[in-house]
Specification:
The radius of gyration is 30 Å and the shape is elongated. It has 427 residues and is mostly helical. It folds into two domains: 6-39 and 145-279, no CATH class; 54-139 and 282-419, no CATH class. The two termini are 56 Å apart. The protein has 17 helices and no strands. Helix 1 (6-17) crosses helix 8. Helices cover 70% and strands 0% of the residues.
C-alpha cells in the first residue's frame, strides 16, 4: 500500500514549505499568469463592449442612410446609392463569442471575425497578399493565457518534482526517508507529489481568475471546466516529474531529461502535428488561385452584357434594362465571379478544416496543445466555431444580395420603407 499516512502528508508539507526555490518558482508563475490573465480579461471585456455597440452603430448608420434616401427619387441615381449602400458597413458581421472568451481572445487577432456582406466579391477583393495560409494554424503574436500555462507551468512542475529522490540520495538523506516510512518510499513520494500538485493547481487557478472575472460574459460553468482541465494538466506534468525522479540517474541528468521532455511535448510534437496536417490536407496553390481569379474576372468582363441579360431572364419580375450600365453591369459580373470561384472556396475551406481536424485528433499527444485547444473551445474561437461563423456569413450575404441586387438591377433603387427592412446579421 503506497497511500501516505497523516505523518507523511505533514512531513512533506513542511518540507515543501521550507524550500525557498519552490516558493520563488510558484510566486513567479503566479505573477506571470496574473499579468497574462488580466490582459486577456481586459481584451475580452473590450470585445464584449464593442459587440454590444454593434447594434447602436448599425442603427446610426441606418438612420443616416434613411436621411439620404428620403432625398432620392427612384431612378439611376438612387440605384447607384443602393449599390454603394450594399458595399458599405451596414453589412458588417461579428463572430459570436462564448462564455470563456478570456481563454481564447488572442485568436481574434488572427481569425477573420469581422467579415462584411457586400455586393462586391469578398473572395476577390478582400484576399490577403502573400502566400495562402490557414488562419486556424497561424500564430497570434503574444501567447494567450492557456499558452502561458502550457509553456511555464510544466517547467515549474518539473523543477519541483523531477530529481526528488535523486537529490535525497546525493545528499545522503535517502536512508533516513526509508527509516521514516515502514512501507517504503512510495507513500513519501506520493505525499510529496500530492502537495506539489495542489500547489501548482492552486496557482494556476488563481492566476487564471482575472481572465474570467474581468469578462462580463464569463460563467461559473466555464470556470469549473477550466479548473478541471488545469487539474488534469498539472497532474500529467507532476506525474511525469515523479517518474523521472525514480529513474536511477543523477539529479542533474534527471533535470536534463525533464527539460528535453518539456521541449518535446510543448514544441516538437505540436510543430510535427502542424507539418502532418499541412501534408495531409495541403492548401491550394497561391499561383493557381491568382490564375483562377484572373480567369473569372476576364470571363465576366468579356460577357458583361450577356450576364446581365441572363440575370433578367432568370428574374422576369424585374423589367429588363439593356444594355446594362454601371452598377447593374458590375453586380452581375461579381455574381458570376463568385459562382466561378465557388469550387475554389470550397477546396480551401475543406483543406483548412482538414488541417484543424488532424491537429485536434493528435492534440492528446501534447498536454499543452490540448489545453490551448480547450481554451479556444470555451472561448468560441476554435476551428469549429469559426467554420460555423463563415457559414453564417455566407448565408447572410446571400440574403443581403437577394434583397439589394433586384433594387440595383431595376434602376430604381431602394425605397425608404424597403430600407427599414434591410437584413441584419444574427449569429
Amino acid at each position: 500500500m503506497i497511500w501516505p499516512s497523516t505523518f507523511h502528508w505533514r512531513a512533506e508539507a513542511l518540507r515543501l514549505a521550507r524550500q525557498p526555490l519552490a516558493g520563488w518558482a510558484l510566486g513567479a508563475l503566479l505573477l506571470v499568469l496574473l499579468a497574462s490573465a488580466t490582459s486577456a480579461g481586459l481584451d475580452a471585456r473590450a470585445w464584449r463592449a464593442a459587440q454590444q455597440q454593434d447594434g447602436a452603430v448599425l442603427d446610426q448608420q441606418l438612420a443616416a442612410a434613411l436621411s439620404r434616401f428620403e432625398k432620392n427619387a427612384p431612378g439611376q441615381a438612387n440605384a447607384t446609392a443602393t449599390y454603394q449602400l450594399g458595399r458599405g458597413e451596414l453589412g458588417a458581421t461579428r463572430m459570436a463569442a462564448q462564455a470563456g472568451l478570456g481563454l481564447g481572445v488572442q485568436r481574434l487577432a488572427v481569425l477573420p471575425v469581422r467579415l462584411k456582406a457586400s455586393l462586391d466579391s469578398r473572395h476577390v477583393d478582400a484576399r490577403d497578399p502573400g502566400p495562402l495560409r490557414n488562419p486556424l494554424l497561424a500564430a497570434s503574436g503574444l501567447p494567450g493565457l492557456p499558452a502561458m500555462v502550457a509553456l511555464l507551468l510544466p517547467l515549474v512542475a518539473l523543477v519541483l518534482c523531477a530529481g526528488l529522490l535523486q537529490e535525497e540520495r546525493e545528499h545522503g538523506r535517502l536512508g533516513l526517508l526509508r527509516v521514516q516510512s515502514r512501507r517504503g518510499l512510495g507513500p513519501v513520494l506520493v505525499a510529496a507529489l500530492g502537495w506539489r500538485l495542489l500547489a501548482l493547481w492552486t496557482v494556476a487557478v488563481l492566476g487564471s481568475l482575472p481572465a474570467l472575472l474581468l469578462d462580463p460574459g464569463a460563467s461559473a460553468a466555464v470556470l469549473m471546466q477550466w479548473a478541471a482541465a488545469l487539474g488534469a494538466f498539472c497532474a500529467v506534468w507532476v506525474a511525469l516529474g515523479g517518474l523521472l525522479s525514480c529513474v536511477p540517474v543523477s539529479a542533474a541528468a534527471s533535470m536534463l531529461a525533464a527539460l528535453g521532455l518539456w521541449l518535446a511535448l510543448t514544441f516538437a510534437l505540436p510543430a510535427g502535428l502542424v507539418l502532418l496536417a499541412q501534408h495531409a490536407a495541403p492548401l491550394p496553390s497561391r499561383l493557381e488561385s491568382i490564375v483562377a481569379i484572373r480567369a473569372a474576372q476576364h470571363a465576366s468582363e468579356d460577357h458583361e452584357q450577356a450576364l446581365a441579360q441572363a440575370w433578367y431572364e432568370a428574374h422576369p419580375e424585374i423589367a429588363a434594362h439593356l444594355p446594362a450600365v454601371w452598377p447593374a453591369s458590375f453586380v452581375t459580373r461579381v455574381l458570376d465571379q463568385d459562382l466561378a470561384l465557388e469550387g475554389w472556396g470550397v477546396e480551401f475551406a475543406e483543406a483548412r478544416v482538414g488541417q484543424a481536424a488532424v491537429i485536434a485528433q493528435g492534440a492528446w499527444l501534447s498536454p499543452g496543445l490540448a489545453l490551448v485547444l480547450l481554451g479556444e473551445r470555451l472561448a468560441g474561437t476554435d476551428a469549429a466555431s469559426h467554420v460555423r461563423y463563415l457559414d453564417q456569413v455566407d448565408a447572410f450575404e446571400q440574403r443581403w444580395r437577394d434583397f439589394l441586387v433586384p433594387r440595383v438591377m431595376d434602376r430604381q433603387g431602394l425605397r425608404v420603407d424597403e430600407l427599414r427592412k434591410l437584413p441584419r446579421f444574427a449569429p
